[in-house]
């Protein structure tokens, strides 16, 4: 049976989200009719759909390695009205299958649409393809997009460390702020490439832990004493005490950030040292230079696996990675019910990793290509030659 | 004759400054005695010198591809006292040759030390090796460090553009702030990888031009009308009118920045659109992922050429690139008198490039490796399918 498929991308783009789309299209465009949703759920609710021609399929496949979401993505509140309008688009167009590539919010909306279709006795197959840089998506070991972002964070930190140790007569503290929303996966990845203790990061602030200002200041002070500088990493989701937080709202969605800048002011006032606040910014989710090759492959595998689920008439599921029990390195592709994804909720960095970062880095290592050079021992420590 | 050499690194590090040092050491460590200055001019003034052993030479050579300045660098005001103390270090140690790797300030201090040595009838050979990410160093076509930074800026902009076009129902304007101090070379490089006019940057703010707020707002508005979003790039050195500038002083040195953040506030207040200010930050000068391979080679060539000048007893000069008259692609290594470097002053982006960016990109192209993928035509324009 030739199915009518609608596919879209939702939420913040990643460096590899187009790879999932391209692989899916390549697999199915000759078997079924695919139409594309412009700008994610907003386009679905507002019937902003583009008919898939051979030329368009080809153009999408050409976007395989391009960052950003080539169909348009964005944020859109999935309230009751939006869900109803989305189903109307689907029913008016006699759509058989809805496929969305996205994170937690995307999967929640997908489940609501499926539910409403069922209540309306409309037969709809729904499939979710995972995507997140924050790794906060439940129901899967990890999701495409995260590894590229984690690798970028880790490389930025070790390179910033080498820069900072050279500049410590001008700048003693550098605070690097990462993405991650309410989960610390990205911030904690900052030390992944560290080979020498003096490289740091000497402090990692995670949203999962309550922030202790005194402890933080103590680490900064002792690192300066020991190395001549301090490299600190904080997640955008760290909640500062006493209303110091600078998060704000844009279109009803909380936009995090400003933790590094706030801590910079606190340190400069209290310690009389120079501090730089560095926000790694959108490059974490879009810079194509560091897209992990494994991440790309996995993003493609997710698209291909979604095509297989579609062919097998599986519905109400998200594509998911399950790690082989016998080997950390072996990833199985499976499907998990959307209700399990939702039940899992926003995924946090587990305690076992927070307490044991090397254990986390072992978990992370099959996801990140080993293209990082091993840096030699630093030569200068503060203002003295560091004897090796 | 076996010479006593002192070598140091000064100013902000780059991704390739260690390559110049490594090449120099590799060339001469078996012929002369090399000692190393810790933390640039501060170390020279304060007699903070490390004796060069075979083990240390090897360790330095291992830093060839590592970002940061492995000897320690930093900022230090070269006032009369510092210059006198520097010469004292040199004379007390019977140093024959002083070699410094750095930018404008480094070369100025080098010339002052040479002058003072001459007044004291102390025979001192001085050689400068160029380094800058801002490309504001006079007396040379360009300097190592710049190409890697320019390439990073250009890649960040084209990737941010793909991200922004996917997010335009959430964020309509993104303002990217680059380094460059008072010169626009880095900011202007932002469009180097652009293949499609919709990618932008739709506006580039340069320190060489006076900032026209009305013109800027007009470009932002018309880009949003045309594409659904606007990607603007501003140099940290752009001077905003009416005291809006947010530059500040750290240790007597003006630290630029904050232009993007200020413009963000102005647009959000005036236009009712969402704006993100992105500062590309220290990764511009340290991220090893995008160090242009040509930049690395040139940094090494500068170190090797400095060794040759030393062997030939040339003094009072800086290593310099001169572009072949008959071919844009051919770079000659020459030496230029330090007084000519100083006379040239802070190097600005010339008018011919400001008025004709494609001409600038032609000039830039032999410095940047051609590893950028050609991105296909964007699929979505605002909220409609962009027919090709």
TrEMBL record, chains A, B:
Cofactors that this protein relies on: Mg(2+)
InterPro entries given in the database record: ATP_PFK (IPR022953), PFKA (IPR050929), Phosphofructokinase_dom (IPR000023), PKF_sf (IPR035966)
Signal peptide stretch: none
Domain of life: Bacteria
Keyword Transmembrane helix part of the UniProt annotation: no
Record-listed E.C. numbers: 2.7.1.90
Any one GO BP annotation for this protein: fructose 6-phosphate metabolic process
UniProt entry tagged with the keyword Ribosomal protein: no
Top class in the EC scheme: transferase
Keywords from the UniProt entry: Kinase, Magnesium, Metal-binding, Transferase
GO MF annotations, alphabetized: 6-phosphofructokinase activity; diphosphate-fructose-6-phosphate 1-phosphotransferase activity; metal ion binding
Pfam family for this entry, one: PFK
Sequence ranges assigned to domain Phosphofructokinase in this UniProt record: 4-309
UniProt family annotation: Belongs to the phosphofructokinase type A (PFKA) family.
Protein name: Diphosphate--fructose-6-phosphate 1-phosphotransferase
